[in-house]
TrEMBL record:
<dbReference type="GO" id="GO:0008270">
    <property type="term" value="F:zinc ion binding"/>
</dbReference>
<comment type="subunit">
    <text>Homooctamer.</text>
</comment>
<dbReference type="Pfam" id="PF00490">
    <property type="entry name" value="ALAD"/>
</dbReference>
<comment type="similarity">
    <text>Belongs to the ALAD family.</text>
</comment>
<comment type="pathway">
    <text>Porphyrin-containing compound metabolism; protoporphyrin-IX biosynthesis; coproporphyrinogen-III from 5-aminolevulinate: step 1/4.</text>
</comment>
<protein>
    <recommendedName>
        <fullName>Delta-aminolevulinic acid dehydratase</fullName>
        <ecNumber>4.2.1.24</ecNumber>
    </recommendedName>
</protein>
<keyword id="KW-0627">Porphyrin biosynthesis</keyword>
<feature type="active site" description="Schiff-base intermediate with substrate">
    <location>
        <position position="254"/>
    </location>
</feature>
<feature type="active site" description="Schiff-base intermediate with substrate">
    <location>
        <position position="196"/>
    </location>
</feature>
<dbReference type="GO" id="GO:0004655">
    <property type="term" value="F:porphobilinogen synthase activity"/>
</dbReference>
<keyword id="KW-0460">Magnesium</keyword>
<dbReference type="InterPro" id="IPR013785">
    <property type="entry name" value="Aldolase_TIM"/>
</dbReference>
<dbReference type="GO" id="GO:0005829">
    <property type="term" value="C:cytosol"/>
</dbReference>
<feature type="binding site">
    <location>
        <position position="239"/>
    </location>
    <ligand>
        <name>Mg(2+)</name>
    </ligand>
</feature>
<dbReference type="InterPro" id="IPR001731">
    <property type="entry name" value="ALAD"/>
</dbReference>
<dbReference type="InterPro" id="IPR030656">
    <property type="entry name" value="ALAD_AS"/>
</dbReference>
<keyword id="KW-0479">Metal-binding</keyword>
Amino acid sequence: MYPLRRNRRLRTNESMRSLVRETIISPNDFIVPLFVVEGKGVKEEIASMPNYYRLSLDILQKEVKELWKLGLKSVLLFVKVDDKLKDNSGKEALNADGLMQRAIKTVKNAVPEMIVMTDVALDPFSIYGHDGIISEGKVLNDDTNAVLAEMSLSHAMAGADIVAPSDMMDGRIFEIRTLLEDEGFCDTGIMAYSAKYASAFYGPFRDALDSAPVDAKDIPKDKKTYQMDYGNREEAIREALMDIDEGADIVMVKPGLCYLDIVRDIKEVVNVPVAVYQVSGEYAMLKAAAEKGWLDHDAVLLEQVTAIKRAGASMIASYFAKDVAKLIN
Ligand SMILES: NCc1[nH]cc(CCC(=O)O)c1CC(=O)O
Ligand SMILES: [Mg+2]
């Protein structure tokens, strides 16, 4: 009872506050998403993601060395695929000498201790901009899984530490785990995008990879038949538990800020690490507001990533990873 209890006593100064602070952010918490393109000396800024770039392999090599010096120890690779290589089967995704496979090797050669995670989904390879194979207006679940498993194997063979299926097909974790085990890749981990919502916050990412669903006859206009409905909570828990049963090492919630209730719900029922993806639209919102002088970029950023960790995230995939590492180092 007041005045015996005065909560302000533990807030009197920064030393006192740091003594009782429950959630502390470190570079160890972050996964750095990286966009890779063909070419030499390429560092193209993404229009809707200020200060974020598509990198060719030579620049990627320099970038990961810099990340490592900042204490950032894991990257998540995405590739922007040439239109000529796109089809409806994901054939290029299995190319042992494809851009992703070369990017994996580039990172591992530059910084062998860097954890290399890879995006596993068909959208960057799809002429239709969908995460699966399309037939008669539908995204085929099981046919897609077979390609995702082969794609994961190809990434593992190139040296990936963790494959990260972002597609939301049912049963793909089981198919991927089974193939990896059969082929001797028992140490390759799986980070499952388990509760991935059909979100409007992915817009800038689709600009970065030119991977938005195309507007054409008999092609689904959006990803709502596989990504989750944002009105749903219990379904997210079911998705996470199923992925763990199927062999996921880490489960992910995506996007971040609007979904922290889901992060907490999942955290309370699972016994594997929970990852959160602070997505491209979240990045764009803060950059835009800061550019206008309406928000204090660094202060808002630290508040946001701390909130994500406080909600239950063991790790955060974030385009702000480098900004955060520089701020707290
Ligand atoms: N498999 C696609 C994929 N993997 C990661 C993202 C979004 C990441 C972001 O917005 O930062 C997406 C976009 C989508 O589902 O359309
Ligand atoms: Mg699922």
